Fold:
Amino acid sequence: MRKLILLMGILLFFTQGAFAQKKAKNIDIKWTSEKKCKKIYFTQDAVFAYDDTGYYILRKAGAIKEKNYLVHIDNKLNLDKSR
Structure:
């Protein structure tokens, strides 16, 4: 009996994650062709700002000597500026 209760408790615990997040509404996903970069970037905190001209992303480059880049991507998902 204890094993059955324990098993049901474990199943209940692990199935909570499947229903923890609500489904998002009004999402528009845009896919573009694959873009090639000269450097290997690690995106940090994903998109942290956006406006009518596009999206602003903070990226890191380099594993040993890290450099931060502020990147602007336009509404057509093309790299516009990187500083």
